[in-house]
């Protein structure tokens, strides 16, 4: 396979620009478009599919390996998915739901590996235990309650808990070196966790689509969308190299363009986007490739977020495997840019404003002073202070061993709320036109990991007349389709084992 998908595409320049009508137009070259395009091709191979990506290759924004945390979010270690109620109980329902969704992604990937659509599993997914590590009596008590709430759930089978420094040292030695004596700490560990390179996965999915007739175009930016009387969409685009304009019609449009999805949905004129805005939050990570350090840590370790920090900023120390090379990342450290994408416009945050979303956005600003305080504090941190934050995880960390890298932009959803006027929402949301001919995805984590589940929901909403005929094939691709695994322990065990074998994962 070529290093970049664009090298392998049949139309690298302005020759033979796409025209006419396609069944499906996917805007944006990320994991969401790749997943939806793959599902549609598997369900109905005769569909005419086109893909437009404004950058020079697919998977260069949020799906890029260095622009996201790449955990394969399964709620195994992320504390914000198991909130503690006022009565002190821990609710595992959201964690179970997210794990169910991740299992659907794993099943789809394993089916595609077996069919030869995807390359060897190690090119995009690797076994990496998921851990949670906390300090202080309050957080230790919470983590123990979380463990008790999860340990008997079938999808969390094998979760371990310890307050013993010797045990935790065996799990993740870097965490325990020169740890202060008498300090309360605890950890949980799930050996069956994974590390996912969504960039590699995305490129492979698009390569298969291109090889099977999809018209995948990079350096192609959508400018306008208009719904025509016959129900199709007229989409005007422009080549980013040479500025050559073009026009295409589509029976169905999916906007998977990250932060720009809001702008394109606004241009479409659908009323369903009314009241929506986005708040961009960037991120940075500390990274090391020092073999001596990397060799001492094979895990993804999450902890509690700082007061006022958004869920996406929960600190974690991650093993990453990208292009076969292992490294460690720590962060994220929040940054601010008015851009909705890493390669966006400095005017993005202003040009999104409409009469219908100004009120909700102002209400969000008023109601979230702690977020603003947190962002300001993060922006004031220099490299030394960021390594100081790392030392809460790795007491022996040295400034010179870690470099700072810029991650991607996350466009957090702001929307109308009947009670509060406006809310800031952490998560993903699909906005669909009333007739089902256009849909777009807004938001961030845990999006990539749950792409299969999100796109299955979109298929039901946007293709209600076809979903019934597609369901037998969907069950072949995703055996648990339409059912919940956690309610069926034997089925959960079988599916977890089968996908682990197909993806060559070892606990």
UniProtKB/TrEMBL annotation:
**PANTHER family (alphabetical):** L-2-HYDROXYGLUTARATE DEHYDROGENASE, MITOCHONDRIAL
NCBIfam families of this UniProt entry? mal_quin_oxido, PRK05257.1-1, PRK05257.1-4, PRK05257.2-1, PRK05257.3-1, PRK05257.3-2, PRK13339.1
Q: Quote the protein name from its UniProt record.
A: Probable malate:quinone oxidoreductase
Q: Which organism is it from?
A: Microbacterium salsuginis
**Metabolic or biological pathway, per its Swiss-Prot or TrEMBL entry:** Carbohydrate metabolism; tricarboxylic acid cycle; oxaloacetate from (S)-malate (quinone route): step 1/1
- Give the cofactors, semicolon-separated: FAD
Q: Kind of enzyme, top EC level?
A: oxidoreductase
Alphabetized, the UniProt keywords read: FAD, Flavoprotein, Oxidoreductase, Tricarboxylic acid cycle
Q: Does the keyword Signal apply?
A: no
Gene Ontology molecular function terms on file: L-malate dehydrogenase (quinone) activity
Reaction(s) this enzyme catalyzes, per UniProt: (S)-malate + a quinone = a quinol + oxaloacetate
Q: Where does the source fall among the domains of life?
A: Bacteria
Provide the family line.
Belongs to the MQO family.
Record-listed E.C. numbers: 1.1.5.4
* InterPro entries, sorted: FAD/NAD-bd_sf (IPR036188), MQO (IPR006231)
């Amino acid at each position: 396979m070529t290093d970049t998908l664009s090298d392998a595409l049949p139309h690298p320049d302005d020759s033979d620009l796409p025209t006419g009508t396609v069944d499906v137009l996917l805007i944006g070259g990320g994991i969401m478009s790749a997943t939806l395009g793959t599902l549609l091709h598997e369900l109905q191979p005769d569909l005419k599919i086109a893909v437009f990506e404004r950058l020079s290759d697919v998977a260069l924004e949020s799906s890029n390996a260095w622009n996201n945390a790449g955990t394969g979010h399964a709620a195994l270690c992320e504390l914000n998915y198991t909130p503690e109620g006022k009565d002190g109980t821990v609710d595992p329902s959201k964690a179970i739901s997210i794990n169910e969704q991740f299992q659907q992604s794993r099943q789809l990937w394993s089916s595609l590996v077996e069919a030869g659509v995807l390359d060897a599993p190690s090119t995009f997914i690797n076994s990496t235990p998921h851990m949670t590590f906390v300090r202080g009596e309050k957080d230790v008590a919470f983590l123990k309650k979380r463990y008790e709430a999860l340990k008997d759930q079938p999808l969390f089978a094998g979760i371990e808990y310890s307050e013993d420094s010797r045990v935790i040292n065996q799990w993740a030695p870097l965490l325990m070196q020169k740890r202060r004596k008498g300090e309360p700490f605890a950890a949980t560990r799930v050996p069956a966790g994974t590390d996912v390179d969504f960039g590699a996965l995305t490129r492979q999915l698009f390569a298969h689509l291109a090889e099977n007739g999809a018209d995948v175009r990079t350096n192609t930016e959508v400018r306008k969308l208009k719904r025509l009387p016959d129900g199709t969409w007229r989409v005007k685009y422009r080549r980013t190299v040479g500025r050559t304009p073009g026009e295409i019609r589509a029976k169905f449009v999916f906007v998977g363009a990250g932060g720009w999805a809001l702008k394109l949905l606004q241009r479409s004129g659908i009323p369903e986007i009314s009241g929506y805005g986005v708040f961009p939050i960037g991120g940075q990570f500390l990274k090391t490739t020092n073999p001596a350090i990397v060799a001492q840590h094979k895990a993804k370790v999450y902890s509690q977020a700082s007061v006022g920090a958004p869920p996406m900023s929960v600190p974690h120390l991650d093993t990453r495997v990208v292009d076969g090379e292992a490294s460690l990342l720590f962060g994220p450290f929040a940054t601010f840019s008015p851009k909705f994408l890493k390669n966006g416009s400095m005017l993005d945050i202003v040009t999104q404003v409409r009469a219908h979303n100004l009120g909700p956005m102002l209400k969000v600003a008023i109601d979230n002073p702690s977020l603003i305080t947190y962002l300001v504090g993060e922006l004031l941190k220099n490299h030394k202070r960021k390594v100081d934050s790392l030392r809460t995880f790795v007491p022996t960390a040295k400034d010179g061993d870690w470099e700072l890298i810029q991650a991607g932009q996350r466009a957090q959803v702001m929307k109308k709320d009947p009670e509060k006027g406006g809310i800031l929402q952490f998560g993903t949301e699909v906005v669909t036109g009333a007739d089902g001919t256009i849909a777009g995805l807004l938001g961030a984590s845990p999006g990539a990991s749950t792409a299969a589940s999100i796109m299955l929901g979109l298929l039901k909403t946007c293709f209600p007349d076809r979903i019934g005929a597609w369901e037998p094939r969907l069950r072949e691709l995703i055996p648990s389709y339409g059912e919940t695994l956690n309610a069926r322990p034997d089925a959960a065990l079988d599916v977890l084992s089968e996908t682990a074998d197909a993806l060559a994962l070892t606990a």
